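Our preliminary data section would be incomplete without showing what the modeling component actually yields. Below, a chain of 181 amino acids is followed by its predicted structure, encoded as tokens that our downstream tools consume directly.
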Amino acid sequence: MRRLLLSVLCALCVCLPDVAGATVLIPIEFRELVAVSTVIVHGRVTDAHAEWTAGRRSVETLITINASEYLKGNLGGSFTIHVPGGQLGRYRTVLIGAPEFRAGDEVVLFLRDGRIVGLSQGAFRVVADARTGLPIVVSPVVMSVSLDASEAVVRGDARRKPVAFGAFRDIVRQVMAGGAK
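Predicted structure:
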């Protein structure tokens, strides 16, 4: 009887469809991030709310940004982008590597076709330095230690340091002047 039950369970496991999915996040070099982005914007998140995608198959978050400054391109004073993932009631969609935002977050976003380039790799947080109170830019988890394109990308490298916002802006402009379009 035990063998029969085991055989039936094994047969069921073999017959049931199995859906497997994976997210592969390939690190992007900073020069490439600047080059492929059609818009680079510094601004503040004024609204972040989740909505169903077409067909109610998953949830995405709509982020409204109030632009302070454009380093590349222009989408106007305020615009909305879609970020994969989010939660509506008891339903939640999670996409590994997708950034999460809240109203009030200050960010620098690298955008292409209305989406953040490289998921979280194209979303830099701007926070106040604990010592000086001046704005600093915090690199995403998957980014090289410095913004030098010749350096290897190491996920979670402890040597990665925040950069003063003015210096970050200058680096972006230098990269664009160096041939990135």
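The chain has a mean pLDDT of 83. The CA atoms of residues 49 and 61 lie 5 Å apart. Preliminary results of this kind motivate Aim 1 of the renewal.
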